[in-house]
Amino acid sequence: MSVGDVGAAAVLAIEDDADIRLLLRTVLGREGYAVAEAATGREGLRTFHETRPDVVILDIGLPDLDGWQVLERIRDLSDAPVLVLTARSSEADKVRGLNAGADDYLTKPFSHVELLARLQAIRRRRPAPGPVRAGFDDGRVRVDFVRQQAYLDGEPVLLTPTEYRLLSALVRHAGQVLSADQLVELAWDERPNLGPERVKYAVLRLRRKLGWESEASPLRTVRGFGYRYEPLA
Ligand code: CA
């Protein structure tokens, strides 16, 4: 590896324009980047939490959540570098983007050279995060993120896809409080106005399946804030 070469990396491109996604996939793929794609803000957040990319390329004009909202939710839980794509080139947008936690921004249309240069630059400015974790294991709960299977004290636990994603989100952020909104974002496929009650009952079901109905449950309710998985020390 030469000096200054930060190596290839996993990129998540959140962009609703299929032509631009194709362009990103082609240009970045050629440079050895592994490119994951999402066409909406919600899908982008889901993929972000599942794949933990090294860099995010984020379009601002998206059909559901706009890029600002996506950026805010990424920043709630992560410091991953984010390169914002904007159709506008006003100074106000640039300031807004940088204040919101974007690392840099690129105005469409952009050249391949400029795209690659910006990506290299923001990756150099921030230390690369660790490799994608294949699983979580604190000696009590083990979650295999590849097989999407949870184990309790070595025994497989039968969970619905939503319950699995709920547990997986909580253990990925072990020790950290996640709000009901964040959990909806991370665990539910369909979210027609899912309220905190749905999350509450799903947490109760998950606790029951894990046999954690007592006060000493590692899946804590933090009143007024949300839920936290308390890992074994
Ligand atoms: Ca767009």
Tell the overall outline: elongated
Question: How many domains would you count in the coordinates?
Answer: 2
Number of helices: 8
Which strand-content bin applies to the residues?
15-25%
CATH topology of the largest domain: Rossmann fold
Under CATH at level 1, the class of the largest domain stands as Alpha Beta
Could you characterize the architecture of this molecule?
- The protein is an alpha/beta fold.
- The protein folds into two domains: 10-125, Rossmann fold, CATH 3.40.50; 135-229, Orthogonal Bundle (Arc Repressor Mutant, subunit A).
- It contains eight helices and eleven strands.
- The chain has helices at residues 18-30, 41-51, 67-77, 91-99, 112-125, 161-172, 180-187, 196-210; strands at residues 10-14, 34-38, 55-59, 82-86, 104-107, 135-137, 141-144, 149-152, 155-157, 219-222, 226-229.
- It has a five-stranded parallel β-sheet, with helices on both faces. A four-stranded antiparallel β-sheet has the order 6-7-8-9, covered by helices on one side.
- The two termini are 37 Å apart.
- The structure holds calcium ion (CA).
- Calcium ion (CA) binds at residues 16-17, 59, 61-62.
- The site of calcium ion (CA) has 5 residues, from loops.
